[in-house]
Design goal:
By secondary structure, the chain is of the alpha+beta class. Helices cover 25% and strands 26% of the residues. It has 18 helices and 35 strands. Strands 1, 2, 6, 7, 8, 9, 15 and 16 form an eight-stranded mixed sheet that branches. Helix 2 packs across helix 3, helix 2 packs across helix 5 and helix 12 crosses helix 17. The longest helix is centred in the first third of the chain and has 21 residues. The mean pLDDT is 97.
C-alpha cells in the first residue's frame, strides 16, 4: 500500500468508487480508495438498481440527472457494461393531490432539463398493457401518470466495476481487505490513516462508508446523522402473463410506481421485483455495524409487506399467478430528511462526507461529480445546500436520528407537499416562550430542529394544517396576520436566528475581507453583508451590527448555523486578533413591527425612538421593561416600522409579557412564519437558501447596492470583476402573476418567453395578502428583466401570465420603514 496520497476515499460501494472516479476526471491521479472487505459488499450488492429521476429538490434533481446521463456513456468510455435498461418510469396518480405533486415536479424538471410527459389513463395502458386502471370501487382509479422515458434500472455491481475501471484508467489505486482502524490529523493539517495493512498519509479524506457512517464519524470526532433502515423487496418467480407478453414482442415494461400504494415494481428475468416502503421498518446499526454482519441480509418479514403486495396484485393481476422466490431485506442508509450528506464535515479541515444515500445508485454519479469539484476547485458547481452535511446541527442525537429516519422511510412515497411538517422527534429545540405561543394557538413547524409557529389558529379554529399545493385552510388566517402587522402591530418570535459575536482588534478588517459590502465602522450602524464563494456566488447573508469598539454582532438564518459557523471558524486569522463566539442559544429575538410598534416600545424604554434619535438601519443597546443589554436593531424582514429585539435569553418571558401588556391598547398580536413569507415577498426581500445561493452572484440577485467594489479585497471579488466584464448573465426580478385562482407560485417554476423557451426560474412566490396580488421572485435572462416584460409561468401544469413589476410592490419608497414619530 502507498504511504501517501492526495486523497483517500474510505468505502468501496458505488458512492465511494464514483467519488474516486470523478477525482481522476478532475485530473487528480494520486488518489486511493480503502475498502474493509471487497467492493460493493455493503448495500450496493443487494440494491434493486432503480434510477428514479423524480425528485422535488432542485439540487438532488440535478445530481440524479447527471448520474443517469453518465451511466449511459460509461460503457463506451470504460469498455465495461453496466446493464442499464432504459425502460422508462411510470408514476401513477389516483387523486388530485398526487397529480398536483407531479405537476409541481414538472416545473423543476423543466428548469433542469429532465424529459417527462404527463400522460392519460389510455396512454398508460398502451405503455403498460398488464395494468388494471381500476374501477374506483375495488381498486383506486388511475387518473393519470408522470412518465420519464430516460429512467430505468441498472446492475449496481456492474456499474461499480465500470467506475472502478474508469478510476484505475485515471491513475487511482484501490486496496480491498483494508480496514481503517484509526485516524489522526497531523500539525501540518494532513491526515494519517491507520489500517490493518499499514499507514497512509493524505491531504483530504472522503468518508463514503454507507452503513458504517456513524462509527467512522466517531473515529473522526464528528456526529454523522446517517443510520440505515431495513428495506425489503420481493423477487418473484417467472410470470406466465409477463412471459407471454414478452414472447409476443412486447418491450420491457417501464418501472412502475404506484406512489399512493407505496411500492415500485419492475421486471426481472420474466418475473418481478416488488419493493414496498412499509410502515414499521426499523432502523438498524444505530450503535455501529456488528462484526458478524458482513455481506449479509436480515430475515424477510412478509407480514409487514402484505398490504402493499395485495395492492400491487389488484393493480397488476399477473402477480397473482407468481410464486415468491425470495425476500431481500438489507440495510439502506437514511438521514432525517432523506437527502444524502455530500460536502465538508463541520469543524474539520479537509474531511469530506458522501454518506446517507437512501438512493445511492441513483445519486452515486452526481454526488461523486460534485464532491470532486468541491475538493479540487474549492467550490461545487451547483448549489448543494439541500445535501450539505452542515444543514444538521448537534441536535441530531442517536434517538432523534432513529426516529426521523424511520419516519422518512415510511414517507418515501407519501405526497410531498410544500407545507408538510412531519411530527416525529418533536418538539426538540424550543424558544423559552414556546408554551405561551402554544396556548395562543400556534400551529407548529420545524426548521433546523427549532419549533417555529407557522400560523396561529384563532379561538374556535382547528389547529391543524391541511397540506396542499393550493390555497388551503390557513390561507385566511395568514392573511389576517399579515394585515395585523401592516395595520397595527405584531410580534414574530425569531429566537432561532443564528447569532455570532466577533470581537478583537482585527474584527473589522477580518469581517471586511469576508463580505462584499462595507462592514460598519461606526458604533450603532448596521449593514446587510454577503459572504461570497470564490466564484462569486452567495455563500451567506449576514446582518452585521457594530455594538462597540472591536465588538460586532453577526446575525444570519437559523438554518445556516453550522454552515455559517464553519465558514467563520475556518477563516479566522491565526494571529489571535479576532475571537468568535456562537451565541445562538444565549440570545432570543422578537421582531416587533407595524405602524404602532414605536408606541408599544416607547412605553417600555427610556431611550428615545424618533428618527433623529434612532434612525432606520441603526441599533442601540437599550433596556426593555426591566431587562438590560437588549440589542435593538431598527431592521426587519417584513418591511414595516419596527425593531428586532435581541435579548439575553433569560429575559424572554419578561420582555414577551411586557410587550403584550404595553401593546394591548394598540391591537398587538402574534404573527407566524407563513405571514412573514407573504410580507417579505411583497417587499421583494431575498431569502438565503432559496433566492440567494451559490448559483448566483449578488449582481445577478440585483443586490448591486450591497457590493462595494471600491473597498479592499474580499472573497469572490475577482470573480465579480470577471462577471462585470463579461456581462451579468441573469437578473433577479419581481413578477405579478395574473389569472391565479387557487394555486400561487411557490418556487422552482419555469418562466417562458413568447416563443415558449425557458428564460428563467422562480425561486420563491406567495400570495401578497396586503397587495392582493400573486407574486413570484425569479432569475431571468437580462433581456427579460425590464419592468413591463410579459412572460409565462407554469404553475401546476398551467401557464399563467407573469409581468415584471418594479421591486417592492408594497411601499416601494420605504416610507413605512422610515416613518417618524408623530409630532
Amino acid at each position: 500500500m502507498k504511504s501517501h496520497a492526495r486523497v483517500v476515499v474510505i468505502g468501496g460501494g458505488v458512492v465511494g468508487v464514483s467519488t474516486l472516479y470523478h477525482l481522476t476526471k478532475k485530473g487528480w491521479s494520486d488518489v486511493v480508495l480503502l475498502e474493509r472487505t471487497e467492493l460493493t459488499a455493503g448495500s450496493t450488492w443487494h440494491a434493486a438498481g432503480l434510477l428514479p429521476l423524480f425528485n422535488m429538490s432542485y439540487t438532488v434533481g440535478q445530481i440524479h440527472k447527471y448520474s443517469v446521463d453518465l451511466y449511459k456513456r460509461l460503457p463506451e468510455e470504460t469498455g465495461q457494461e453496466v446493464s442499464f435498461h432504459v425502460t422508462g418510469n411510470l408514476r401513477l396518480a389516483t387523486n388530485r393531490d398526487r397529480m398536483d405533486e407531479y405537476l409541481k415536479y414538472c416545473g423543476t424538471a423543466n428548469t433542469i432539463g429532465v424529459p417527462f410527459e404527463v400522460i392519460s389513463p389510455s396512454q398508460i395502458k398502451e405503455l403498460w398493457p398488464l395494468i388494471d386502471l381500476g374501477d374506483g370501487v375495488n381498486t383506486d382509479k388511475v387518473i393519470g401518470a408522470l412518465y420519464h422515458p430516460d429512467d430505468g434500472h441498472i446492475a449496481p455491481v456492474d456499474l461499480t466495476m465500470a467506475l472502478r475501471k474508469g478510476a484505475r484508467m485515471g491513475g487511482a489505486e484501490i486496496y480491498e481487505q483494508t480496514e481503517v482502524t484509526g485516524v489522526q490529523q497531523l500539525p501540518s493539517g494532513e491526515w494519517k490513516i491507520t489500517t490493518n495493512k499499514g499507514e497512509i498519509t493524505c491531504e483530504h479524506v472522503v468518508c463514503a462508508t454507507g452503513n458504517y457512517a456513524r462509527q467512522m464519524g466517531r473515529m473522526f470526532g464528528i456526529n454523522v446523522p446517517a443510520i440505515p433502515v431495513e428495506h425489503q423487496y420481493i423477487v418473484y418467480d417467472e410470470s406466465p402473463e409477463l412471459k407471454a407478453y414478452r414472447e409476443a414482442g412486447g418491450n420491457e415494461l417501464a418501472v412502475l410506481r404506484e406512489s399512493d400504494a407505496q411500492y415500485y415494481l419492475r421486471e426481472e428475468r420474466n418475473g418481478w421485483i416488488l419493493g414496498p416502503y412499509e410502515k414499521g421498518a426499523p432502523a438498524r446499526f444505530a450503535d455501529g455495524v456488528p462484526g458478524w454482519f458482513g455481506k449479509s441480509l436480515f430475515e424477510g418479514d412478509l407480514d409487514r409487506l402484505l398490504p402493499h403486495v395485495e395492492a400491487a396484485m389488484k393493480r397488476v393481476p399477473a402477480l397473482e399467478t407468481c410464486g415468491i422466490k425470495t425476500i431481500v431485506n438489507g440495510p439502506i442508509s437514511y438521514t432525517p430528511d432523506g437527502n444524502p450528506l455530500i460536502g465538508p464535515a463541520f469543524g474539520k479541515r479537509n474531511l469530506w462526507l458522501n454518506e446517507g444515500h437512501s438512493f445511492g445508485v441513483t445519486a452515486a454519479g452526481g454526488s461523486g461529480w460534485q464532491l470532486a469539484e468541491w475538493i479540487v476547485e474549492g467550490e461545487p458547481g451547483i448549489d448543494m445546500l439541500a445535501v450539505d452535511p452542515r444543514r444538521y446541527g448537534a441536535y441530531t442525537s442517536k434517538r432523534y436520528t432513529v426516529a426521523k429516519n424511520e419516519e422518512t422511510y415510511r414517507n418515501v412515497f407519501t405526497v410531498h407537499f410544500p407545507d408538510e411538517e412531519r411530527e416525529d422527534g418533536r418538539p426538540l429545540k424550543t424558544s423559552p416562550v414556546y408554551d405561551k405561543l402554544d396556548r395562543m394557538g400556534a400551529v407548529w413547524g420545524q426548521r433546523y430542529g427549532w419549533e417555529r409557529a407557522n400560523w396561529y389558529a384563532p379561538e374556535g379554529v382547528e389547529r391543524h394544517d391541511k397540506w396542499s399545493f393550493r390555497r388551503t385552510n390557513y390561507f385566511e388566517h395568514v392573511g389576517n396576520e399579515c394585515r395585523l402587522m401592516r395595520d397595527k402591530v405584531g410580534i414574530i418570535d425569531l429566537t432561532a436566528f443564528t447569532k455570532h459575536e466577533v470581537c478583537g482588534a482585527g474584527a473589522e478588517a477580518w469581517l471586511d475581507s469576508l463580505v462584499a459590502n462595507k462592514v460598519p465602522s461606526k458604533i450603532g450602524r448596521i449593514a446587510l453583508c454577503h459572504a461570497l464563494t470564490k466564484r462569486g456566488g452567495i455563500h451567506a447573508e449576514f446582518t452585521i451590527t457594530k455594538i462597540a469598539d472591536n465588538h460586532y454582532y453577526v446575525v444570519s438564518a437559523g438554518a445556516a448555523e453550522r454552515i455559517d459557523s464553519d465558514f467563520l471558524q475556518k477563516n479566522l486569522p491565526a494571529d489571535g486578533s479576532v475571537t468568535l463566539r456562537n451565541i445562538t442559544g444565549s440570545r432570543g429575538c422578537f421582531v416587533l413591527a407595524g405602524p404602532n410598534s414605536r408606541d408599544v416600545l416607547k412605553k417600555l424604554t427610556d431611550s428615545p425612538l424618533d428618527n433623529k434619535s434612532f434612525p432606520w438601519l441603526t441599533s442601540q443597546v437599550i433596556e426593555v421593561g426591566m431587562a438590560t443589554d437588549v440589542y435593538a436593531l431598527r431592521v426587519n424582514f417584513v418591511g414595516e416600522l419596527g425593531w428586532e429585539l435581541h435579548f439575553p435569553i433569560e429575559y424572554a418571558h419578561h420582555i414577551f409579557d411586557q410587550l403584550f401588556a404595553a401593546g394591548r391598547e394598540f391591537g398587538i398580536g402574534m404573527v407566524g412564519i407563513r405571514a412573514m413569507e407573504s410580507l417579505r415577498v411583497e417587499k421583494s426581500y431575498r431569502m438565503w437558501g432559496t433566492d440567494l445561493t451559490r448559483d448566483n452572484t449578488p449582481f445577478e440577485a440585483s443586490l448591486d447596492r450591497f457590493v462595494r467594489m471600491d473597498k479592499g479585497d474580499f472573497i469572490g471579488r475577482a470573480a465579480l470583476e470577471q462577471q462585470l466584464a463579461a456581462g451579468v448573465p441573469n437578473r433577479f426580478v419581481t413578477l405579478e402573476v395574473q389569472g391565479v385562482v387557487d394555486a400561487d407560485p411557490l418556487g422552482n417554476e419555469p418562466l417562458f418567453n413568447a416563443k415558449g423557451a425557458v428564460v428563467g426560474r422562480a425561486t420563491a412566490g406567495y400570495y401578497g395578502h396586503v397587495t392582493g396580488k400573486s407574486i413570484a421572485l425569479a432569475y431571468v435572462k437580462p433581456e427579460y428583466a425590464e419592468v413591463g416584460t410579459q412572460l409565462e409561468i407554469q404553475i401546476l401544469g398551467e401557464r399563467k401570465r407573469a409581468v415584471v413589476v418594479p421591486e417592492s410592490p408594497y411601499d416601494p419608497e420605504n416610507r413605512k420603514l422610515r416613518a417618524d414619530a408623530a409630532a
